[in-house]
Amino acid sequence: MIPFVDLRLQYESIQQEIDQAVKEVFTTAQFVGGELVKKFEQEFSNTLSVKHCIGTGNGTDSLFIILKALGIGPGDEVISPAFSCIPSAECITLTGATVVFADVDNQYYTLDPKDVEQKITSKTKAVIAVHLYGQVAALSLLKAICDKHKIHLVEDCAQAHLTKENEKFAGTVGIASAFSFYPTKNLGAYGDAGCILTQDDQLAEKLRRLANHGALKKDDHTIEGTNSRLDTMQAAILSVKLKHLQHWNQQRNEIARLYGSLLSSQSSITLPAERKDSVHTFHIYAIRTKQRDALKQFLNVMEIETLVHYPQGLPYTQAYRSKKHSIKDFPVTAALQNEVLSLPIYPGLTNTQVTSVAENIKNYFLG
Q: Hey, which residues does 285 pair with through a beta bridge?
């Protein structure tokens, strides 16, 4: 069996470091907040050269808290990709604002700047750029559009740890950015965890308050907030993993290159594109084929685990069906939802395993 991801393998490769970090948490008996959380926040902000990192409970909370800190609420509109995971849309609705979907482009599967600009109205307050699969969105273009219309650019970096465009890290261009450290991410905790990055001092203070019941310290409640704090245990684990992240991303790129060389001759498959002057971190390696479902079933029989990210564009899910969007509204999303297939990719996946996946895909198309 070739699994889609193997978290046990990753743990075994750094077991001594992880076990020591966990032991430190129990030894200090500081389970909420404390120096280990501050340590990771500083390390992560230093890695991306950003002034402020605010640890949160998860990536979804991060997006929601950013929008709340920006004053977005009822009567406002926020533009988000039609092809994405649901947190990039539900966080908008949770503020009381209205989600407005824009289609993604046909090459990189990230927000189409032209469609974004067409969707902007007098009610638009922000655009959420999702760096899907580890591929950077068209940040320069989206930032220019947002600046032109005097609206906020928010980055969803849940799948883009150390992704870059023009030497700028994803998460450092917009007013603020949200990261998820869900276990399967390139930088993953052993439970839910997330953070927010920003360069803005005043916004950073408000974000930190909103994530901690409106307080910077005990009983310092200047506003109402919520409870979304980065768990100390997860912070300690993330500090260990952060030291390995660059190397793990390099391994992902090597696997992606091998897939590319082995599958480039298959005319029935579209391989992942990489935006010029960018660094793709390949959280997901998604091929595209009109025979997606049959190929997935074939690979399953061959004991190769694959996943679909995502089987429905958000406008076509039950959650947003009341808006009655048609296929014509988001043609790229409508096609992608039936064609993308995510292949195994993770640090430790061997060349032999990658070759086996590719050879089985070739065998399927040979019939």
A: 343
Place of tokens 């995510």: 342
Q: Which amino acid is at 312?
A: Q
Give the rounded distance of the alpha carbon of 345 from its chain centre.
Answer: 16
pLDDT at 143: 98
- C-beta atoms surrounding 312 within 10 Å: 17
The CATH code for residues 245-366 is 3.90.1150.10
What is the distance between the terminal CA atoms of the chain, rounded to a whole angstrom? 22
Q: What residue spans in the chain does CATH classification 3.90.1150.10 cover? A: 245-366
- Which value, in Å, is the radius of gyration of the alpha carbons in the chain? 21
Show the low-confidence residues of the chain (pLDDT under 70). none
pLDDT value, residue 321: 87
Given this model, what pLDDT does residue 337 score?
98
State how far the Cα of 111 lies from the Cα of 105, in Å rounded to an integer: 6
Under 8 Å between Cβ of 49 and 199 = no
How many Å apart are CA 18 and CA 242, to the nearest integer? 12
Residue ranges of the alpha helices (H) in 270-350? 292-301, 331-336
Q: H-helix or E-strand containing 164?
A: strand 164-165
pTM of structure: 0.97
Q: What is the dihedral of CA 317, 320, 325, 329, to 10 degrees?
A: -80
Determine the pLDDT at residue 54: 98
Please give the single-letter amino acid code of residue 124.
T
DSSP H or E segment with residue 68: helix 59-69
**Measured between alpha carbons, how far is 266 from 281 in angstroms, rounded to an integer?**
23
| 8 Å CB contact between 253 and 280 | yes
User: In the CATH hierarchy, which fold is given to the domain comprising 7-242?
Assistant: Aspartate Aminotransferase; domain 2 (3.40.640)
Rounded Cα distance, 192 and 167, in Å? 29
Whole-number pLDDT of residue 256: 98
